[in-house]
Give the backbone structure.
Amino acid sequence: MNAVPLLQLRGLSLRLGPVWALRDLNLRLEAGERLALVGANGSGKTSLLRVLNGLRPPSAGSLSWRQPLRQAMLFQRPHLLRCSVRHNVALGLWLAGQSWRQARKRALLALERVGLAELADRRASALSGGQQQRVALARAWALEPQLLLLDEPTASLDPHAKREVEALLGQISRDATQPEPMTLVFASHNLGQVKRLASRVIYLEGGRILADLPVNDFFNDALLAGNYPEAQAFVRGEVA
Ligand SMILES: Nc1ncnc2c1ncn2[C@@H]1O[C@H](COP(=O)(O)OP(=O)(O)OP(=O)(O)O)[C@@H](O)[C@H]1O
């Protein structure tokens, strides 16, 4: 285990209005992990992703990242600008400090990697939902993030597009051209997807971590029954 984790939460809590969305979370994440966040609606998955991204400061406790850390976030619905596909990807690179010429070149390479190079000059708004999510992935991937945060990235897609985006995520997480392994943290209600993509699973309930296990242990019914009854009830309910 590295001396310096990619990120670490110590006793972190988050209050949103009258609600404690996250309560006393302790978590250490190492480079290369593929962490799935699971739990019922309102259990705190999105809140945790927003805290990890630095979008919301914690109300109590602390959060530290390895510095410097390049990170990117993908949402359930892609937030694309009203311009061409290539422009959308290039703009992210330009904002990150690349020249416009270099950004346009790199954008095309990123679009090639997600199989959308031939649509580079189309308006992003004219693409299907699955294609738009692939553009958002290309935009994130092009930045070579060390940490990629994803909030239910395939939830709004049809089964075919779901499979395509999921396959790309698998490819991204094993991308040997990256200088170091990318770390993924993703929220998902799709337990099949969690099994296929995650190396580790955190089960949240009422803003608390009730289980934090390697993926194979999380899907071991006997182990959950003895030690994590809430997680077992959740998994059984979701797969029933
Ligand atoms: N802006 C807000 N103001 C007040 N409470 C909020 C706000 N956003 C979320 N909450 C509350 O915080 C808790 C955690 O919500 P969060 O969206 O993180 O859950 P989630 O697990 O991502 O849910 P879902 O699966 O529905 O996306 C819930 O009780 C929710 O109602």
Residues 7-18+31-239 form a domain with the Rossmann fold fold (CATH 3.40.50.300). The chain has a mean pLDDT of 93. Residues 16-17, 19, 21, 39, 41-47 surround adenosine-5'-triphosphate (CB under 6 Å). Residues 159-173 form the longest helix (15 residues).
